[in-house]
Structure to design on (312 residues):
């Protein structure tokens, strides 16, 4: 099984994702963005601060050549997972609808949140209804025009929402002002997932939660079954 | 021919701008009765083009492809003059 982890200048969760995948028996390949993305079964774009978040978070990385290869993988139906800055890169690449912008309270927010799984896709097959997972971002407020939001519901593209301890999508549970508490969004074909929370940071008991591991496990299992 | 263009990128109306809100509150703290404030980014570009039309066309492409995010931004292009630096 060949899973690539793309490294941009400023990526800083690449090795955490590597470890999370490795623990599940996969040896992923770290691919520097200037290299050619070879033949892979799936790809993860990890978190960090590519290009120092200049212009807009993810904007410059989204226009690199390697993202053209990611686009091709996405249209071939292969799993593409973007986490945090990776999610911002996917939205700036228009591989998922909408965009992530400055938090409603405009500061970096780093804390544990609870998510509810809203719809199914290959990445969440083994994910429980409610999971605990950390966020760490300043530009995580999900924005989509109202007519597009309607389509996202109709097409079941909203994968995760921020919820409170009881599992309700309350205003207080929304850490960044995302529309409808949206934390993760998929493309129409459901093989591209962009999520602001960090599953790799919830993949080991020592980290406080293993809830995020199920996302990688689901991705691996999907690829193995192909 | 060298051209100079000014591209102004601002949030579409209705898109929340938390930074502007913070700045407005700071102005109010200073005693100014400021009800609304909008901020924008201005990019001054210098580049070669065959003609003014071509220059506007290129600036439009640069804006669409990178400078603005069409989901949240509007942009405005102003050609400053035919010769950059003059």
């Amino acid at each position: 099984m060949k899973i690539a982890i793309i490294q941009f200048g400023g990526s800083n969760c690449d090795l955490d994702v590597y470890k999370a995948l490795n623990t599940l028996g996969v040896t992923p390949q770290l691919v520097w963005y200037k290299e050619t993305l070879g033949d892979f079964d799936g790809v993860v774009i990890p978190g960090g601060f590519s290009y120092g978040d200049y212009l807009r978070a993810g904007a410059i990385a989204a226009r690199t050549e390697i993202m053209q290869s990611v686009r091709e993988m996405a249209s071939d139906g292969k799993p593409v997972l973007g986490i945090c800055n990776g999610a911002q890169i996917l939205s700036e690449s228009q591989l998922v609808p909408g965009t992530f912008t400055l938090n409603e309270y405009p500061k970096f927010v780093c804390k544990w949140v609870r998510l509810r799984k809203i719809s199914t896709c290959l990445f969440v097959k083994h994910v429980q209804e409610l999971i605990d997972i950390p966020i760490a971002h300043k530009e995580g407020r999900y924005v989509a025009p109202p007519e597009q939001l309607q389509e996202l519901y109709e097409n079941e593209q909203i994968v995760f929402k921020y919820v409170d301890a009881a599992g309700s999508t309350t205003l207080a549970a929304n850490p960044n002002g995302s529309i409808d508490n949206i934390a993760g969004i998929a493309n129409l074909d459901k093989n591209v997932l962009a999520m602001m929370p960090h599953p790799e940071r919830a993949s080991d008991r020592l980290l406080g939660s293993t809830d995020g591991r199920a996302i990688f496990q689901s991705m691996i299992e999907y690829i193995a079954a192909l | 021919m060298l051209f100079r263009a000014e591209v102004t990128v601002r949030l579409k109306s209705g898109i929340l701008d938390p930074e502007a809100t913070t700045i407005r509150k700071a102005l109010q703290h200073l005693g100014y009765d400021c009800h609304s404030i909008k901020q924008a980014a201005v990019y001054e570009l210098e580049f070669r083009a065959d003609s003014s039309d071509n220059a506007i066309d290129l600036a439009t492409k640069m804006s669409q492809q990178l400078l603005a995010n069409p989901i949240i931004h509007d942009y405005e292009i102003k050609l400053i003059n035919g010769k950059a630096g003059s």
Remarks:
- Chain B touches chain A at residues 15-19, 22, 65-67, 69, 71-72 (CB under 8 Å).
- DSSP finds two helices and three strands in chain B.
